[in-house]
Amino acid sequence: MEREDDDLAAVAALVGFLRAEALTDRLAAVEEELVGRSGAAGAEAAADRGLTGEMLAAALTVRSQVGRLSDVIHACTIALALPHILEPGEQIAVRPSLGAGNDPSRPFDLETDRRVAEFKAAQWNGSDSWRQRTLLSDLVHLAMDESGRRAQLYVVGPRPARYLRTTRSSVGRVLARASERTRERVAARFDLSMTIAEFTAGPAAHVELIDLARWLPQLAELGAVAPPDVD
Questions:
Q1: Interior CA angle at 219 toward 218 and 223, to 5°?
Q2: Rounded to whole angstroms, how far apart are CA atoms 207 and 140?
Q3: Which residues make Cβ contacts (< 8 Å) with residue 94, sequence separation at least 6?
Q4: 56 close to 216: Cβ distance less than 8 angstroms
Q5: Exposure check for the chain: N or C terminus, fewer CB within 10 A?
């Protein structure tokens, strides 16, 4: 009964969040407000618009029961991670990509004056072929950045990093379903016959693989649940 009450409370919190303002408008507003802020100030601005730890926990709970809430989880994850990952004086340089999906004008989820980063908030559960492809795609994307800034790939739990460091499948094989343009860009820079492990230890060795669960226990607590994919 207590679990049922908690689930209902989570649903109520999430429904209130989504009804109060169109999610696209809310995320756009937060994205604009984050530019030029430090980590702590950015998290405060996001919290003022409802992107809090409580909202992340509520969204994860509802997703485990009734469906996908990718954008809310992705946005909360990035907003809540900011105070932990941004250094003193570091500022967000470009409007971040809080919603799941790709925007050609914003190639990375987060760009600051010191780093570029991608975030993967999915908890892997053993049936992860789609997650593997998108994870590798983000790693390749980060490895291709030539800005000289730190490159970081944030994941949940040990499985994503283990996959990248130990898999013997070739980069080309896993990226076979990527767009032709993406494959051409990658092939122009890297040997697609390399294994994923070789690529991770070689051309992508400078990309840091970081577990978000160290800072966001909401992600770790539901790690045993098999939720839909989130990017």
A1: 120
A2: 9
A3: 35, 106, 108, 111
A4: yes
A5: N
